[in-house]
Amino acid sequence: MRLAFLSKLSAALLVSATPVLAQDVTLRFQHFVSPQSANPKYFIEPWAEKVEAESNGRITVEIFPFMQLGGSAQNQYDLIRDGVIDGGWVIPGYQPGRFPEAEALELPFMVPESAEAASKAAWVYTQKHLMDDFSDVHVIAVHMHGRGLIHKKGDAPESVADLQGLKLRGPSRPATLLLDALGATPIGMPVPAFPEALSRGVVDGGVITWEMSPSLKLDELTDSQTDVSGERSLYNLYFIWAMNREVYEGLPPDLRAVIDANSGYDASVWAGQAHDQGDADGRAAMEASGNEIATLSEDVTAEIRAVGETVIEDWADEIAARGLNAQELLDDARAAVRITSEPSR
């Protein structure tokens, strides 16, 4: 009788242990743009599919666009940190001043026009200066988008004077500092608010990438898209793809290894490549729309770069006043760009 009892007990323990050994996990990630935008289309969704496949279906990654799980693009970081969502796409610059060290990468003409190249530099720089800032979440990848352009109603600007007094949307503090220094009236706002602000006349235009243009209907809401000359971007934006730290650390070791295998430098490069592909798609769509596509002359670009240098100097003074080593941040941002641009990297 005792033997029969022990046999039943052992069987029960084996049954109860089975779900633990075959634990399935559902992760809910969200972002704030159309699923047809470049990052979701070419990085976020494929990343989720790759994680699911490499976990043999034990991880399900549910992706929610347009902030469908609640909150706003501005507080996405806190939603991840607090466990409201398991993970998501974050623009740290949407909370101006909170992550000042990240701003070094967003300063005028700091990074290359290629999002892939800029994202390589972003990963290197992040390892030295930003992992402590993001210690309350688990960073999967960091990246930057491609060229930031001036999109506006009416004719394309041909000089700095043409920007005077224009109400222009800016996504980050460095971008709005540059617009202000150029004589425009900057209005900071996240990307989801941009189309409505254009349609209501709150802004005359703004700065954003090629890749976001079609999904925001900028072919209908603006008349011209204007880039600067050269191989550096007028401005850029820094992003992180991250998940809740407790959720990550609570994964079984083999599933945590799947996330790790799809994290880091290579994932950051992948995210950058997504934006480069999106820029090619977006530019083609905008050209097909009949909008004016313009490039500022080298002389005007040089004038803007000179203004950008004053913005960098003022930023450095402000950051130094906050007790940070501004010169080290600038030097390391430039070194990361230089190192990751080398063919051997």
What does this structure look like?
With 345 residues, the protein is of the alpha/beta class. It folds into two domains: 25-146 and 236-279, D-Maltodextrin-Binding Protein, domain 2; 148-235 and 291-340, Bacterial extracellular solute-binding protein, family 7 (D-Maltodextrin-Binding Protein, domain 2, 3-Layer(aba) Sandwich). It is built from twelve helices and eleven strands. Strands 7-6-8-5-9-11 form a six-stranded mixed beta sheet. The protein has a five-stranded mixed beta sheet with strand order 2-1-3-10-4. β6 (167-170), α5 and β7 (185-188) form a beta-alpha-beta unit. α4 crosses α12. It is globular, with a radius of gyration of 23 Å.
Gist?
The chain is an alpha/beta fold and 345 residues long. It has helices at residues 2-21, 38-54, 76-81, 115-129, 173-181, 194-199, 218-221, 245-249, 253-261, 265-289, 298-321, 326-340; strands at residues 25-30, 59-64, 87-90, 137-144, 148-152, 167-170, 185-188, 205-209, 224-227, 238-244, 292-295.
Please give the structural blueprint.
Layout lengths: L1 H20 L3 E6 L7 H17 L4 E6 L11 H6 L5 E4 L24 H15 L7 E8 L3 E5 L14 E4 L2 H9 L3 E4 L5 H6 L5 E5 L8 H4 L2 E4 L10 E7 H5 L3 H9 L3 H25 L2 E4 L2 H24 L4 H15 L5
Parallel strand pairs: 1-2, 1-3, 6-7, 6-8, 9-11
Antiparallel strand pairs: 3-10, 4-10, 5-8, 5-9
Helix pairs in contact: 2-10, 4-10, 4-12, 5-11
How many distinct folded domains?
Answer: 2
Largest sheet: 6 strands, mixed
Based on Cα principal axes, name the global outline.
globular
Strand order in space, largest sheet = 7-6-8-5-9-11
Instruction: Report mean pLDDT, rounded to a whole number.
Output: 93
Q: Structural class, from secondary structure content?
A: alpha/beta
- In the CATH scheme, what's the topology name of the largest domain? D-Maltodextrin-Binding Protein, domain 2
Which CATH architecture of the largest domain is right?
3-Layer(aba) Sandwich
Radius of gyration (Å) = 23 Å
Low-confidence stretches: 1-21
Proportion of helical residues:
40-55%
> Could you give me the name of the CATH homologous superfamily of the largest domain?
Bacterial extracellular solute-binding protein, family 7
